[in-house]
Amino acid sequence: MGLFLTGLAILVIFLILIGLRVINQYERGVVLTLGKYTSTRQPGLTWLLAGFQKMTKVDMRITTTDIPQQEVITKDNVPVGINAVVYFQVQSAENAILNIKDYTLAVSQYAQAALRDVIGGIELDPLLSEREKIAEEIQKIVSDATQSWGILVTDIKIQDIELPADMKRVMAKQAESERERRAVIIRAEGEFQASERLAQAAKVLSSISGGISMRTLQTIEKINPDPSKTVIFALPVEVLEGIQAISQTVKKAK
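RE: above sequence
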């Protein structure tokens, strides 16, 4: 009898020891008893009845999964290569285990299909300029589908958009033409402002007797300061008349 009790005690201790499990702070344990869901264990030390209960640990942290590059044709028939990354988090450990076989793979595949559907319905220009808006639309589609799996899709980021080589050349030429157009406009605006200032200066000089003539002489003096060189100018009659008027004024002053 004593031997039987000793053997029984050893068996009980053995079952207790092999049934002990540790669940980390970021995990939850989904327990099946004889194949039926019975509980979700919280972090810490827990015990399972060996042979009758089985526990699957679920990571509750935010997880990332890549969407490999997809060859998609946009609405305006431009083939693009596009890839993205999905950020998701398990909200219900039991649903993630019981309602879907491999929730990580399922999220990746569904996001891939949603990406192809959304990109195929928009044109190239909005795709390049409204990347965040498109990512939010894909996120909403995936979130609606994964809600029953106990999964929350927190974010989707479109990483790279690969364009065909000929399309890159066309866009580069377009950008170059746009820069040239802006340069011409800026140059024209500068010349217009300069002409306005010049007109104002001419108006002021015209109001002064001999002002334009004196300005012309100053300009001639600055053109070639080297006395060893000779510069010949064809002066307009107005300039000569201005010089004559200055001479007469000087004579009268004497």
